[in-house]
């Protein structure tokens, strides 16, 4: 018997960053900071209602995102050109700690494609948070995204 399974995975990852929420939030909306731990180029700062192009020049790929909602120091919600949505939430735990939660949903394709995209997103956003932590807490650029797959650089 062949059963059909409806897959609608939601990827969640989180990390405690030992910096105030305003600094952590700024790291995601200001490309001069974000390029230190994630993408290599951006068409601009995130603001609600704005479309922004993010580029990973080493891989020859980009993503046009639309900022659906932005609540200063608390939340960012974007729609990606691949059809997924990503939400960042920032929760202050005290004056110098912020819990960052990332939720990614809306993966499309057949069962294997959906699962592969979700697994890839989970690993990718975990790397982004690790890179953010190293950069904001210790001033270290780990180059995690570029070093993840150096054989695929263009």
TrEMBL record:
Activator of Hsp90 ATPase homologue 1/2-like C-terminal domain: from which residue to which, for each copy?
Answer: 20-137
Pfam family name, one = AHSA1
Domain of life of the source? Bacteria
The Swiss-Prot or TrEMBL record describes its family as follows:
Belongs to the AHA1 family.
What name appears for this protein in its UniProt entry?
SRPBCC family protein
Q: Which organism is it from?
A: Fictibacillus norfolkensis
Give the classification, highest ranks: Bacteria, Bacillati, Bacillota, Bacilli, Bacillales
